[in-house]
Design goal:
globular, Lysozyme
Length: about 120
C-alpha cells in the first residue's frame, strides 16, 4: 500500500517502519498529494497536451520528482514542440540509485513504468 508515496498529505516524510492501516488510507494520501504533481505539469509545460500526454507526464513527475521534471531534457524537448523527442526521453529515466553503492542501476520495474508512460505519450 502507499503507491510509492514518500510523503504524507501534510508534507511529512514517510519513515521506515511507518504502516498504512488500509487501502483507503493509502488512497486518501495519494489523492491529496497528486494535485501537486498535476500543478507542476500544468505550470511548466508550455505546449498543448492530450489527456494521455498529461497523464504520462504526471506519472513521470510523481515517480521522478518535481525537480527532476523541471530540469529534464524531456521538458525542454516538449516545450519546443518536439513531442517525439520528449516521448523518447521517458525511456531514458529507467534507473534507480543503489543504496549500497550510490550508483545508478537499471531497474526492470522502472523500465516497465517508463515504457507504459511512453505508450501513453503518442508522438
Amino acid at each position: 500500500m502507499g503507491y510509492d508515496s514518500t510523503r504524507y498529505h501534510d508534507g511529512r516524510a514517510v519513515k521506515p517502519g511507518d504502516i498504512l492501516t488500509s487501502e483507503v488510507q493509502a488512497s486518501v494520501i495519494f489523492v491529496n498529494i497528486l494535485g501537486q504533481y498535476e500543478n507542476v505539469v500544468n505550470s511548466y509545460v508550455k505546449v498543448p497536451l492530450t489527456q494521455d500526454h498529461f497523464d504520462a507526464l504526471v506519472s513521470f513527475t510523481y515517480n521522478e520528482g518535481t525537480y527532476a521534471f523541471k530540469e529534464s531534457t524531456l521538458l525542454r524537448k516538449l516545450n519546443t514542440k518536439d513531442y517525439q523527442g520528449a516521448a523518447d526521453q521517458l525511456l531514458v529515466a529507467n534507473k534507480i540509485s543503489d543504496p549500497h553503492t550510490c550508483q545508478k542501476i537499471a531497474c526492470d520495474t522502472v523500465k516497465e513504468r517508463r515504457s507504459a508512460e511512453r505508450h501513453l505519450f503518442p508522438s
